[in-house]
Amino acid sequence: MVCTLLLLDWVKQYGQLIRPGTMVTDVSGVKRGVVEPVQAALPEGVEFIASHPMAGRETSGIAHSAEVNFAPANFIITPTEKNSQAGIDWCRDLAAELGFKRISVLTPAEHDHMIGYVSQLCHAIAVSLMCASDNSELANYTGDSFRDLTRIAHINDKMWAELFLWNKDNLISEIDMFESALQDMREKLVRDDREGLEEMFRLSTKRREAFDKK
């Protein structure tokens, strides 16, 4: 994943050097406010077809490079009305060649709404959990559940701050929804509502099973 501002700056500086007939894609994590300016800045005959391989990790840099099996990951193509079917097909073929088995097409707005929940909210929860208290001593005796839940709290501060702010309307909405669900659980605890808790647990288990079947 790359910072959106870096992408826009690069295109502004070097975009005119790209030869007509070239297909261009990206891996940026937010699409609104990015795709259309890039398309507008590129020369006539250069097609920018945005995409998002959902295969990032919490680490970055060449020291953390490794062979990646893309088959379990999703690949999302986010075309606009300026894209041709040939461009969409080229991007789909690229994803398939890289090994992605699940390839979807969304609008930039649909992508950002989805990413606000399945990616950014998850990072917000992990970061908040680590920042809620001084829990550095927990590393001495915590179990896998805490490690798994907070893996993505090891985060690129500059990149993710930019991504959060770029998509803040969607992320704020998702945080509000999460707070409502957490408050619902809190109220069940206050009322000693065991049946209500069990109902929430059954619902979460059922919904999580959909991911296990992929």
Characterise the protein shown here.
The protein is mainly α and 214 residues long. Helices cover 53% and strands 8% of the residues. It has eight helices and five strands, in the order H-E-H-E-E-E-H-E-H-H-H-H-H. It has helices at residues 4-14, 35-41, 85-98, 108-131, 144-149, 157-166, 168-190, 194-212; strands at residues 23-24, 47-48, 50-54, 74-78, 102-105. The strands form two sheets. Strands 3-4-5 form a three-stranded mixed β-sheet, with helices on one face. Strands 1-2 form a two-stranded parallel ribbon. Strand 4 (74-78), helix 3 (85-98) and strand 5 form a beta-alpha-beta unit. Helix 4 (108-131) packs across helix 7. The radius of gyration is 20 Å and the shape is elongated. The two termini are 23 Å apart. The mean pLDDT is 91.
Shape: elongated
SS class: mainly alpha
> What order do the SSEs take from the amino end to the carboxyl end, as H and E?
HEHEEEHEHHHHH
Instruction: Report the radius of gyration as a whole number of Å.
Output: 20 Å
Specify the oligomeric state: single chain
Mean pLDDT: 91
Number of strands: 5
Strand order of the largest sheet: 3-4-5
Percent of residues in helices: 40-55%
Q: First CA to last CA: what distance?
A: 23 Å
Largest sheet: 3 strands, mixed
How much of the polypeptide forms β-strand, as a percent range? 5-15%
